[in-house]
Amino acid sequence: MAVGRRTEAIFILGSEVIQPRGLLGQAKDSIDSSMMELKQILEILAEAENYPVLFHCTSGKDRTGLIAFMLLLILDIPLDVISADYLASEGELVAEKEARIQELSTIGLSADFAGCSPDWVVNVHKHVTETYGSLQEYLDWIGFGEALRSKIKLNLLEDTKAKS
Prior knowledge:
The protein is an all-alpha fold.
């Protein structure tokens, strides 16, 4: 049994697998490989009794950013507004950025992983549309159909709440 190699293994995984893929690759991999997990999160957000809801990750921009990206597209928010919202996270990361960069370097990742890539939203959207046709088609594919998307709109949009 290999003991004491965990740190080395994490560094190899970080530097040889994750780093070359970058933040965009991480998002693409999540979309393509974590379909059931993404569906489960969206199902939680579709149910009114689950509110208020807090969803987060370590920095609040990668996995959290992906969920927020999907939610905002479900709500028909324009892509440029989603991108501006995502990039606003950058300012919130400044206080711990140096410590985060040091931590990332220990697992083989560059400083790029500590910030928000300016073209992340556009490129994630491009991946979804080129691979699945649209976010709606992707969500249909993973079993999160229009009825569930409508429930999210009902939970999160004021105009929708007023009409019900």
